Amino acid sequence: MPNKHENVTMFQFFEWYTPADHMHWIRLKEQASLLSTLGLTAIWVPPPTKGSSPYDVGYAVYDLWDMGEFDQKGTLPTKYGTKDELKAAIDECKKYGIQVYFDAVLNHKASGDETEVFKAVAVADDDRTQEIEAPHDITAWTKFTFPGRKGKYSDFEWNYTHFSGTDWDAKEKRSAVFRIEGENKSFSDDVDSENGNFDYLMCCNIDYKHPDVVAETERWAMWCVNEFGIDGLRIDALKHISAGFIAHLLDHVRKESNNPDFFAVGEYWKQDVNDLDSHLETDSNIHLFDVPLHYNFARAGKEGPSFDMRTIFDGSLVQSTPQSAVTFIDNHDTQPYQALESFVEPWFKPLAAALICLRFDGFPCIFYGDFYGIEAKSSKEPHTAIPGRKEMFSRMLLARKEFAYGDQDDYFDHTNCVGWVRHGDEHHPKGLAVVMSNSHAKGNKRMNVGAHRAGQVWVDMMGYWQDPVTIKEDGSAKFYCHSGSVSLWVEKEEGKSWITVEESSPEEKEKHQREEDDARAHADDQSESEEEETKEFEAEHPELPKPLDTWDHLLKEDEPQR
Questions:
Q1: Which among 219, 193, 129, 215 has a CA at the least distance from the CA of 165?
Q2: Would residue 236 show up in a list of annotated catalytic residues for this protein?
Q3: One of 15, 231, 267, 290 is an active-site residue; which one?
Q4: CB within 8 A of 22, min separation 6: which ones?
Q5: Could you count the other beta carbons within 10 Å of the beta carbon of residue 156?
Q6: 236 with 377, same domain?
Q7: What angle do CA 182, 188, 191 make, to 5 degrees?
Q8: DSSP β-ladder status, 10-12 and 42-45
Q9: Which of 181, 310, 505, 527 could form a disulfide with 119 if both were Cys (CB 3.0 to 4.6 A apart)?
């Protein structure tokens, strides 16, 4: 059970190709104990609401009140399971002190039950403020009656007056961005200004200027709190929703639930941190995912040694507004074959994990696909499967849980080799030293962990660097890492050894041995710079460590049943 003195860490418990086997809530229940042991304190679950098909990931939302309870859109369970299984999984998470956040898709609705005829005007796709034709009647699927639910939980039915836009004229079989005409009808002003006005994203765009829509959404949010005991929301497509409405909704939930700490994080997908900070000026009571930092990681992975590691946090939210930043490496949208594909290179994942998990600032979120692996896109494309890195991420999470506390000293003074020290606190006094290299040369940093630790022997808890180091009288030591790698240095404990978390190729093992032999030979050198083995970086950066061939090699008894 986590306590108030431990670090908080979020886990995104799904990826885009999670099997549509209705077993995912059961997997979550099975994994709650393990995730708690690793220090996970919050779980972000996929949209639990009924989508437009049995295979829907949850973002083509049909009925917010159907969590896998009613026979609608060709299925009773959602892709992930039934309502009862969801409740059981949440109860299991609560048993281990893990908070649960629902992924709330509030921007639009999909797959209406009936068509309606109403006036609308087509607007330019790249400038929604510009009408491209005169208003006229269209026929659209904007009536939602939810016949399978029959009014249980809510008898509210949706029609075109509850939406501000749609994208399909069923009569003309024509696709366009249609703004719905009518009294007080317009796109919201307090949304992102991309494309002139980015209120409209897809499907039937919800109009939060309509008081009945606001009241219905308030009722649903409180039902989620009271029915399931959730602790927060991950709000999808935040830049497309009225900022004023979201601020109002969160205030309402916090007040009505008597929980001022009810958590919310929004997906505001912009690479410019100024856009994120501008949104936080309008609503400071929400967290945002650090999208700019993700793109820094993606660029660093592709550029290899030419990327200046001193700049890894430049332009990031965790640098400008750390109290509001949820840091992450990848997610369901950035994984291969998805809309925002920008997957971080495998060799850089351990470095990125250390950068989000082991520093003072930010609320880190670990991706299911990185941890357990990504499924094949289809049975016809098994090569698209990507193995998980459970062992590596588990070790990073344990380092965060046990050692990453207290004051922080940065050593960001070299283009390819950076490090930092965490000095510990009264509840976790042992401390931690981190050093990483993004070049083809090993890295080293002389860092000071405190004179009170003089004489201590420290080891790399990742098991990558085999030789220990001894802390000098002044509290300093030269801490090492292998090329394209990261090492986490902690005090050696009697009877405990840190075996390496992942297997390298024979060629890499040989290179690592040479690097350690060379470091041993130059252990007394006073140079503080990274020792270079090559003058030019001509080859592409190797994938370190060597990836496993298939996801099946990672299966253990404590992993989700397939």
A1: 129
A2: yes
A3: 267
A4: 68, 77, 78, 79, 80, 81, 82
A5: 17
A6: yes
A7: 160
A8: parallel
A9: 181
Q: Do the domain assignments include residue 87?
A: yes
Which pLDDT band, with edges at 50, 70 and 90, does 522 fall under? confident
Residues 464-478, buried b or exposed e (16+ Cβ, 10 A)?
Answer: bbeeebebbeebbbb
Same domain flag for 367 and 243: yes
Cis before 292? omega within 30: no
Provide the domain limits for residue 412.
Answer: 408-521
What CATH number is given to the structural domain containing 191?
A: 2.40.30.140
Angle at 315 between CA 310 and CA 317, to 5 degrees: 110
The DSSP letter of residue 522 is T
Q: Supply 69's token pair.
A: 């309870």
> Of 22, 404, 388, 64, which Cα lies nearest the Cα of 217?
64
Of 66, 216, 236, 370, the catalytic one is 236
How far is it, in rounded angstroms, from Cα 437 to Cα 416?
A: 6
Residue 548's pLDDT is what?
Answer: 31
Query: Coil, helix or strand for 62?
Result: strand
- Residue positions counted in the chain: 562
What is the model's pTM?
Answer: 0.93
Q: What pLDDT shows up at residue 427?
A: 95
Together in a domain, 348 and 386: yes
Both tokens assigned to 128: 């929604």
Per residue in 99-128, pLDDT (tens digit) is 999 999 999 999 999 999 999 999 999 999
Check whether residue 345 and residue 392 sit in a common domain: yes
Structure tokens at 110: 């999909």
Q: How many CB atoms lie within 10 A of CB 485?
A: 26
Average pLDDT over residues 295-301: 98
Place of tokens 């606190």: 425
Task: Please indicate, yes or no, whether residues 94 and 18 belong to a single structural domain of this protein.
Answer: yes
